[in-house]
Amino acid sequence: MPNPFPGMNPYLESPDFWPEVHNRLIVAIADALVPQVVPKYRVAIEKRIYELKGEQSLLVGMPADVSILCNPVSPNPSTSNVAVATRTTEPLKIRLAMSEEVREGYLEVIDMATKEVVTVIEVLSPANKRPGKGREMYEEKRDKIFGSRTNFVEIDLLRGWEPLPVLDNDIAAHYRILVSRSNQRPGADLYVFNLQDAIPCFPLPLRGGDVEPIVDLQALLNEVYDRAAYDITLDYTAQLMPALSEADAVWGDSGVAGNQPPAV
User: Fold this and answer.
1) Cβ atoms < 10 Å from Cβ of 11
2) For the residues 124-145, what does the mean pLDDT come to?
3) Exposure check for the chain: N or C terminus, fewer CB within 10 A?
4) Given phi > 0 = left and psi -120 to 50 = alpha, else beta, which region is 257?
5) Is 0.70 surpassed by the pTM of this model?
């Protein structure tokens, strides 16, 4: 069964699948661009590696089915400076702040003659969007690109967390693609679309005067879906994270584009 959604498949946003989808999509975009930009440019798959210190697991939690039994001892007035001990029959259940190594792939379009990075293409991961060190580091890199002569493309196919900032940040949409040409800043093109929409094609900015290749992200995502056999491996009975609104869930249940997507 092909991708039953007309655009982004929300089940691919699952933490169990998104890291793999992210990697496959990065490679698919690179493979699609290479024939369109050679011999003047090459498309390099780059990777950044950094460490997060358990930002999502710092809270101390105790399951509801754990009971704590204490036998308080009344202090003796004559020995009031002695600490009073209590005794528990079960330990508290806590979570430790573990270090997590994050590896994120992205693309650079490089001028073969000058070796300069002409365009950076980012496909956002959860670490780029959720509050914490990962988002802070990504926003710092983003700001540096905005202050440079490098073009920038940012693809956000994740409904969770706050979108990355733009001046008109009150635009409501499930997904977005930002295309920022260095010679047009602070102006930029923002493609916004929802679960019900096909992912729009967008031009890849290069040097002035060059023909800009068109990226058909929808076709690439559908190819990734087919090659990875996600129609078999995705659990379409699982709860979506984040959950859909009631209206979107009704739409998903109604059947789309001749296919019958699973209940959402």
Assistant:
1) 23
2) 93
3) N
4) left
5) yes
Q: Cis peptide leading into 186, omega within 30 of 0? A: yes
Distance CA 129, CA 11 (A): 18
Task: Give the range among 7-11, 30-34, 159-163, 165-169 with minimum mean pLDDT.
Answer: 165-169
Cβ within 8 Å of residue 58, ≥6 positions away: 95, 97
Instruction: For residue 151, give the DSSP letter.
Output: E
Residue 27, C-beta contacts closer than 8 angstroms, at least 6 positions apart: 45
Query: Cβ–Cβ contacts within 10 Å for residue 250, how many?
Result: 11
- Residue 212, CB-side half-sphere exposure with 13 Å CA sphere: 18
The dihedral through the CA atoms of 229, 230, 231, 235 has a sign that is positive
In which element (H, E) is residue 48 found?
A: strand 41-53
* H/E run at residue 49: strand 41-53
The pLDDT of 6-35, averaged and rounded, is 96
Q: Which residues contact 12 (CB under 8 A, 6 or more apart)?
A: 18, 21, 157, 225, 230, 234
185 CB neighbour count, 10 Å cutoff: 15
* Calpha distance 126→106 (Å, rounded): 14
